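Morning, I've got a small favour to ask if you have a moment. I owe you a coffee for this, so here goes:
>
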Amino acid sequence: MVFFRLKSEVRNFFAPYIHVTEYKILFPYTLENQIVAQEHWSENGVCIPVSKGIWLVTDSLPLSVTDLFIGHSAGDIMCFCHYYPNWIIPHRPSAFASLGLLPTKEQFTWLRSLFTNAKIHKVFDGAISGRVADCKVATW
């Protein structure tokens, strides 16, 4: 499985925010502290949810976060960190959020209001869904 080929520091950083089973990796998307959907990684591929929930990862207080990375897939964000691990070093005030396959303005607005001091970076893939999501988020 691709997940186990990621750098160990990436897997360790994200471990508290995922659930590993025998056959798949689950990324919980939450809304008002309730799990409303899950992204799945398995040998058969990736299933990205359409949800109003967000998969959110940070080990910093929201006010102290200086960099917020937004994507439409938790898997894409983890792969990004595999190639750019400097964003997940201990005590680096970064946050990572996956909005799912069809991001909404409400999700983006909520993140922007939560992380008021953060520079926003978009981490979308080159497939058509990623390019469309990238364009949508850029207009907000």
